[in-house]
Amino acid sequence: MKLNLATLIVLGLSTTVCMAQSSGIKDDFKPSALNQPGQEYPQVNSQGYARFKIFAPKADSVKVSLGLGGRGGTQLTKNDQGYFTGTTEGPMDQGFHYYHLTVDGGTFNDPGALNFYGSTRWESGIEIPAHDQDFYALKDVPHGNVQQILFPSKSTNTSRRAFVYTPPGYASDSKTRYPVLYLQHGWGEDETAWMNQGHANLIMDNLIAEGKVKPFIIVNTYGMTNEVKWGKMRDFSIIPFQTVLVDELIPYVDANFRTLANQANRAMAGLSMGGMETHTITLNKPEVFSYYALLSGGTYNPAEIKDKSKVKLIFLSCGSKENPERVKSATEELKKAGINAVSYVSEDTAHEFLTWRRSLRELAPKLFRN
Fold first, then answer.
1. Residue 17 pLDDT > 70, yes or no?
2. Which residues are the signal sequence here (predicted)?
3. Which fold has domain 135-366?
4. What's the pLDDT tens digit per position in 258-302?
5. Which of 42, 250, 319, 332 has the lowest CB atom count within 10 Å?
6. Contacts of 325 (CB under 8 A, 6+ apart)
7. Domain boundaries, given as residue ranges, for the chain
8. DSSP secondary structure of 152-169
9. 108: exposed, middle or buried (C-beta count within 10 Å: 0-12, 13-18, 19+)?
10. H/E/C letters for each residue in 238-252?
């Protein structure tokens, strides 16, 4: 029996569909929302599986770092046309994930995906649609503004960068002054993380449109965390960044934006290592911040709070796949000591951006409320 090329293609597609169905994987894959313009891969399906297709005709091996259970990612299979394809062995957690390709031992980004700064390099990004993604979706509501600023830093002998979110109406109302949240990224990331990966501006726009938050300014700057190698976090000194933040950035923001420039209207929060920075700086400088938030970034204990009257809120959060009991128990101890403390656990997430997006959604309405 002779088979022409069209018949072979149809048979091949039918086989692929049958294999997917027999394995329980739904064949409703669509391009990731974070793909480069016009690129079909990577793709995700309604169950949270991710599928990849990489053209590397001269390569012998292509692996995607995105994977499950620490098993080293997803090994792709090469066909006769030089394409490597493969699907994650199970569904991924909902939300944003960094990943890269390992091609014959070398590290590369996926040419089909947009890049995001994480793991101390620009990594490929993929978005697994979340069932509750509406709270960080781009909607037809009034939007705030995110602008880059360069502020002088005598302590580091250079100009440093920060991003400032001002809420809707800031530009048209020249009289209103706003509280400020200084919001820090994690190790391996930089000042672009919270607006790009975290969608902090969209979360705020939506909450403000729904009347759920008192509008405030958000400032993101580089926490100087990546000067220390992973695994040697105990060598990290907070003093250089504390100087940049407290003595240089905050005065610049207060001088150039309409802020309520006092301790009662200033908050600090951070994810992961940014939480460690928040923990240390808020304890070192209780006269600067009155709201503290650690997002997968450790806990406070009552003995650390020397003057409870200066602390309006301590917010602790993590994913349900992290260590939620530690967060819950620490919150209860703070409450027993007469400190206003709140905990939040993000269901079915780990140390990842959906945890932190949800945490910001829960934190924001609790800030700057008398």
1. no
2. 1-20
3. Rossmann fold (3.40.50)
4. 999 999 999 999 999 999 999 999 999 999 999 999 999 999 999
5. 332
6. none
7. 24-128, 135-366
8. EETTTTEEEEEEEEE-TT
9. middle
10. CHHHHHHHHHHHHHH
Hey, is 125 helix, strand or coil?
A: strand
Give the Cα separation of 133 and 344 in Å (integer).
Answer: 18
CA distances from 38 to 111, 240, 304 (A): 11, 44, 53
Q: From 267, 279, 368, 362, select the one nearest 319 (Cα to Cα).
A: 362
Q: What are the structure tokens assigned to 354, written together?
A: 């959906």
Residue 357, token pair as written in the block = 């997006």
Fold of the CATH domain 24-128: Immunoglobulin-like (2.60.40)
Query: CA 145 to CA 172: how far, in whole Å?
Result: 12
Q: Give the Cα-Cα-Cα angle 265, 156, 224 (nearest 5 degrees).
A: 65
- Which pLDDT belongs to residue 11? 37
Query: Tell me, what's the pLDDT at 35?
Result: 98
C-alpha span between 106 and 99 (Å, rounded) = 14
> How far, in Å, CA of 303 to CA of 219, rounded?
29
The average pLDDT across 70-95 equals 90
